[in-house]
Design goal:
The complex is a heterodimer. Chain A is mostly helical. Helices cover about 70% and strands about 0% of the residues of chain A. The termini of chain A are far apart. Chain B folds into 3 domains: about 40-175, no CATH class; about 180-245, Immunoglobulin-like; about 250-335, Immunoglobulin-like (Sandwich), CATH 2.60.40.1220. Chain B has helices spanning about 5-15, 25-30, 35-90, 95-105, 115-130, 145-155, 170-175, and strands spanning about 5, 180, 185-190, 195-200, 200-205, 215, 220-230, 235-245, 250, 255, 270, 275-285, 290-295, 305, 305-310, 310-320, 325-335. In chain B, helix 3 runs antiparallel to helix 4 (about 95-105) and helix 3 (about 35-90) packs across helix 5. Chain B starts with a strand and ends with a strand. The chains are: A mainly alpha, B alpha+beta. At the A-B interface, helix 2, helix 3, strand 1, helix 5 and helix 6 of A face strand 1, helix 1, helix 2 and helix 3 of B.
Chain lengths: ~180, ~350
Amino acid sequence: MNEAQLVKECIKGNEQCRTMLYNQYSKVLYGIALRYTSGQEDAKDVLQEAFISIFNHLHQFNGTGSLQAWMSRIVINQALKLYQVNKKAFPVENYEDYQEQISDISITDSDKLSYNVLLGFIRELPDGYRMVFNLCEIEGYSYDEVSGILHCSNATCRSQLFKAKNALRKKVVEFTKKESLL
Amino acid sequence: MKTYQDIGELYKDKFENFAPEVPAEWWNDIQTRIVTHQSNQLLYWVGGAAALCTMALCVWLGLSDIKPAVSHAAPASLTDTAASYMADNIISPEELFAEPAAAIHSPSEPVAAPATGTKTMECKSETMAITVIPESDSRPTPPANNTVSTQNNSAPEHPVANQNTGITPSTRTKAAAKSIFSNDTTIYSGDTVTLYVYNATHILWSTGQTGNTIKVSPSYTEQYDVSFVNEKNTDTTISIQVHCVEPVKIYVPDAFTPNGDGLNDVFEIKASQVPATYSITITNASSQKLFSTNNITTSWDGTFYGQDLPHGVYYYHISYTDNLNKTHHLKGDILLIRQ
């Protein structure tokens, strides 16, 4: 059964096909949900709400893009919804202030830098930083797009991203130093 | 090992194929909350059709009901009242018909011919025959119909009619409702069941109680006798059997060690008695089906397609029907231990 047929069956309400579709994509989508949230409970909520939304709106998927991209967007939107609910004041700072703080130290990938470790660093970030970092760096949206999504100015978006990246870099560097000493 | 200048790049590369295991039970929560559009549409259609049918039925019933109500019920009630009036010797039948008849019938409806002498006589005998009824206090109140309401409305205007309050003509004319009582029943031993006798008087249970209902919770199959006066005013005694069955008890172990030492080598479900139907499915954390059977004596040895599965937590879902035809679901996890 190809993907289009699977989608059709899911729309019809075929339980087996829904389970198949879920099994096929749940892990990747859970990965996204984990990146956008600060804890497993939130990630669970986001994933569940997203899947309910996916299955309830599957008939609206027009088939032009990839199904995974469409589903990923739903997960991200769900996470953003949660973020908007929990949103604290989005601090506005100048991007220029942080330009010089960007460190030039390069980071070498190692087995020690596991998903769990890296994920932990992302989760420790303030909510706003995490959103911007995910959207800009991992999803690859432009500043304009992200500022539109997060309802903030382009400059705020940049400053948030740099602060996020600095914070992450600091965490990763400290971690690798500690690991190499051990 | 790749060296990154940009932390974003590192994350992008790392998380591109990030697909962690999702706890298996989450899917069940999601499944229950998905709406199937088509089945909804079907439901609407079915619902709509049912509503239409009901309306049609109501209209039909209403039509067929109204006519007899006008031609039979009203005169019956009138003559009925007439009979009691006559018995009281207060007013003449002619006087009596004048007012309620006007109250009951709408101007457009021709009033059914007022009761003749013979009709009054018939009704008199009818009244005589059913004088025993009002004694039964357990009889459900009959639904109000046109005759009753109009009669009640006219009651305050008619001083004599007040005497009839509580015994509305329609209840009188209707034959007394048939006595009903509990059928034989089956329960889990120790559970409580309510036995009843309605539309009867002088009720006496073998337990010594005299109410319409009694609550019993026998441990073993037991018979309860009850004597009462039924709707035909005759003494009756019936027996109600309450059968007791033991509930099926299912024992599910929480761990097993398939190492061939003869102790807990298989995941085995034990039951106090063989359930009417039984099925078990064992899945791993990603909801992959590893084992299933409908036979309670077939146990799982911790393999999948002949391959030993690793140490870890697996999930079971058992459904069974007990001897009262009730379906039960058991869900939980089992630990497969490998040293």
